[in-house]
């Protein structure tokens, strides 16, 4: 079943304004709302970074239908995995069937300034991540958990408030190993649009499929393949292009932003890019039919949960315009 969501831009808007936009998304017929868990945003000027866990509690109380989750949270440095397990146990009890924990290995931009840790190599980050998942699942399904891992430990720990059915746990990946891990250990997979097409066709989806097959779930109809769709849609093409400037950092290569821990420096690097390059990660269009066909390519690959991220400052305009002109055509085209 096709699901259409809204990416709440926590790096761009404060908590109250962002909450109003997310509630409007439910009114406009979107199925889900997802928020990133950043301690610091991609840029310093006119930026925000509200605390996702408090914000999700407020969102759940203000809405009645939408599914909500993190895209994504890192359970390895700023948070001990047991704190993540407790937080999402509570959210799952408050809003049964409406909460998803989306996880990723993180970025130095968020973890280093908040904790002062030395940012480790990818091998250690991945090992921490896998251990954190094991501990979270143990705390959601067992009592009196004494966990003695390489990185995390608990002693007779119990999460007392948790739903009868554990909160779904989605894993984000941008490479082969994490995609396979999502198939092996996750209840869903998260990635983002606008990258080289071969990444999806030759790396991410085949490795996800291999992981699902190894876990005995190759034919599961319940597995969520979620992709954040970067879309800039407006009746004015110039405005649609210009809107992407706030998110110029997304166009930086991994090499250009590796180990950048200061939003001021990230902003400096991003602002040096041309508008053509800042728009390169986005589907930019004024034509609803064109927008639908370009989005549908991802559905045809097998993604069933599309979460739309609009880059502009007027999110109410985006939600209504996209919801009225694009979503009905997309549902008709893709079922």
What would you say this structure looks like, in words?
The chain is an alpha/beta fold. It has a single domain (3-241, 285-334), classed as TIM Barrel. Helices cover 45% and strands 16% of the residues. The chain has 14 helices and 11 strands. It has helices spanning 15-27, 52-62, 81-94, 108-115, 122-141, 176-185, 197-214, 237-243, 254-257, 263-271, 275-278, 288-301, 315-325, 327-334, and strands at 3-8, 32-35, 67-70, 99-103, 145-148, 153-157, 169-172, 188-192, 224-233, 283-285, 305-309. The strands form 2 sheets. Strands 1-2-3-4-7-8-9-11 form an 8-stranded parallel β-barrel, surrounded by 7 helices. A two-stranded antiparallel ribbon has the order 5-6. Strand 2, helix 2 (52-62) and strand 3 (67-70) form a beta-alpha-beta unit. Helix 2 (52-62) packs parallel to helix 3 and helix 12 packs across helix 14 (327-334). The longest helix is centred in the middle third of the chain and has 20 residues, at 122-141. The termini are close together. The model has no long low-confidence stretch (mean pLDDT 95).
């Amino acid at each position: 079943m096709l699901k259409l969501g809204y990416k709440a831009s926590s790096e761009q808007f404060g908590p109250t304004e962002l909450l109003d936009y997310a509630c409007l998304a439910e009114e406009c017929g979107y199925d889900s709302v997802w928020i990133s868990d950043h301690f610091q945003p991609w840029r310093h000027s006119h930026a925000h970074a509200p605390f996702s866990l408090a914000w999700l509690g407020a969102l759940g109380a203000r809405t009645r239908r939408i599914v909500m989750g993190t895209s994504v949270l890192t359970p390895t440095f700023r948070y001990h995995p047991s704190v993540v397990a407790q937080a999402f146990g509570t959210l799952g009890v408050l809003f049964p069937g409406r909460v998803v924990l989306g996880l990723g290995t993180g970025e130095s931009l968020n973890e280093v300034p908040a904790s002062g840790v030395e940012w480790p190599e990818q091998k250690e980050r991945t090992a921490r991540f896998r251990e954190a998942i094991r501990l979270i699942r143990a705390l959601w399904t067992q009592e009196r958990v004494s966990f003695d891992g390489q990185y995390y430990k608990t002693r007779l720990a119990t999460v007392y408030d948790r739903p009868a059915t554990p909160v779904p746990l989605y894993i984000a990946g941008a490479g082969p190993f994490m995609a396979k891990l999502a198939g092996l250990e996750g209840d869903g997979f998260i990635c983002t649009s606008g990258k080289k097409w071969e990444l999806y066709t030759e790396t991410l989806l085949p490795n996800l499929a291999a992981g699902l097959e190894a876990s005995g779930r190759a034919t599961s109809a319940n597995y969520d393949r979620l992709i954040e769709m970067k879309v800039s849609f407006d009746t004015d093409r110039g405005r649609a292009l210009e809107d992407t400037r706030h998110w110029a950092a997304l166009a930086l290569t991994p090499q250009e932003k590796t180990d950048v821990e200061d939003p001021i420096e990230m902003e400096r690097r991003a602002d040096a890019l041309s508008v053509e390059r800042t728009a390169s990660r986005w589907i930019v269009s004024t034509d609803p039919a064109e927008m639908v066909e370009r989005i549908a390519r991802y559905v045809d690959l097998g993604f069933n949960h599309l979460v739309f991220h609009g880059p502009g400052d007027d999110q109410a305009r985006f939600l209504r315009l996209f919801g009225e002109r694009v979503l009905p055509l997309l549902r008709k085209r893709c079922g």
